[in-house]
Design goal:
51% of the residues lie in helices and 11% in strands. The protein is elongated and about 75 Å long. Strands 2-1-3-4-5 form a 5-stranded parallel β-sheet, with helices on both faces. By secondary structure, it is an alpha/beta fold.
Amino acid sequence: MSSAAGLHKYTLANHKEIPPDGTGIVNEEVGRECLLILDGRALDRECLASALEDHELGMAVQAMGSIDEWRAKKGTPPPLAAILFNLGGRKVTDPGIVDQIRRISSEFESVPVVILADTDDLAQILTALECGARGYIPTSVGIDVCVEAINLAAAGGIFVPASSVLSMRHLIDSGSRDTRPLTGMFTLRQAEVAQALRRGKANKIIAYELNLRESTVKVHIRNIMKKLKATNRTEVAYKVNDLFAEGTPAED
């Protein structure tokens, strides 16, 4: 057998089938569940996809600039296990981002959407979860943590960074300490409003921070003034300060 014939046989034996349209090698993982990475920056999404595949993510990876681009891709799309929406330096609260998260989460109701972003701000994380996201990964974590977070979301769990959970606990503890001297004579909501008055906050700000209607805030303030026998907001703030100074609730 000539060397040319031998080379020809070797090539045929090791040749992977090429689709008629010449688009590339047939994907041997057709039908395997897939992670869809959404990122408008081509280099970032390709590098991330490569890194996740190298770290044994356990699922195929597709990286696209948008959902529309994913839909327009030729061929039958593989079943999605999860969607990783990479915001990069953008915030969840930036214009249009909330709507995108809601739209994707609603359209792919059975597929968990995980946010990847540079910030680990607690407010951003909570907003993402409220919009339907099933996880939030800050880019400060390593690739191994990213892999585990994606797999957790795909299995039905929700991943948030530990640093943000600890921050939330600190806020809860701080809020409990702030209102404790007031709970002897006020309801919890009245105590929160009284504490806000003590800090000189306007009704609109109080309503926004406590997720109340401004008219409801005004009702709470009237009841607080009645219990403290105060005639105006300034007097309320003065008497609430006295409660904190004494460390005991005033008599009703």
